[in-house]
Predict the 3D structure of the following.
Amino acid sequence: MEHSPSLQWDLGDTGGVIAVRMPLHPVALEVLREVGPMAVTTANKLGSPSPLTAEEAREQLEYSVRVYLEAGPAVDPWPSTVVDVTGDVPRVLRVGSIPVEKLRDVVPEILEGEA
């Protein structure tokens, strides 16, 4: 989505857009309740599989991360579904854990694939 000019985070060159992720894991939700929104990325190196445990993340990222929070294995091993909402009609860019059919229950006109 397009980011608000008031967003003061240094997210690098985003081209004026940001991605928003909403976790379902209870520990992640509790952390967000305590600290508020966080600018984060996926816990894997480009081209490597997404880790399902803190130990798997540690094996990939080693000391480039200061703190690993172990809260048990990830429940959903599927990647995030990515939806572009910068245009007039939302568009699914990557199908992941939420199938397009489920999204159409909420947004019937949603499109699938690159523009």
Notes: The radius of gyration is 16 Å. The helical segments are 26-35, 54-61, 100-106.
